[in-house]
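User: New here, any thoughts?
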Amino acid sequence: MKEIVKVSNSVEKLQIKDILTATVSHILCLLCGFFATKGVVMDKLLPFGMSLVAGASLTYTPACAIGVFLGYFIPAVGNGGFKYLAAMFAVLSIKLLLSNYKRLVTNEIFLSFIAFLASFFVNLAALKTVGGSMINVVSEAVLTTLGTYFTSRTFK
């Protein structure tokens, strides 16, 4: 919606059609975020919600983050949803803190890198409490990285 409002430096009156289009697209991103968290890989890995938050454009990041938050808050498997919330908030905070650097925040490699680091270190910290193996930690970080890369290419 930010792109719709900031078309120029002048104040413009928005059409109802533009507002409805922006509202529907944000609601769809919210739903995509919710359903992306339910994609289970290797019986207990859920990397796709974080990939969506990391790879979404800055316009749709809040809507995706709300959907992913709700999806991870209602976990699909066991009690491991909170480690994904921590990783999602790490990615979200880095992305929003650096939002003034448009070239950096829209770079697929950078977004994939912060998604990898957040996923790897949060899963490494939760390895003892949630359980799993080092192979799960590395494979989930790689899946998150690849998902972020392709998601960010999709949003361009």
Remarks:
- Residues 2-154 form one domain.
- DSSP finds nine helices and no strands in the chain.
- The chain has a mean pLDDT of 87.
- The two ends are 15 Å apart (CA to CA).
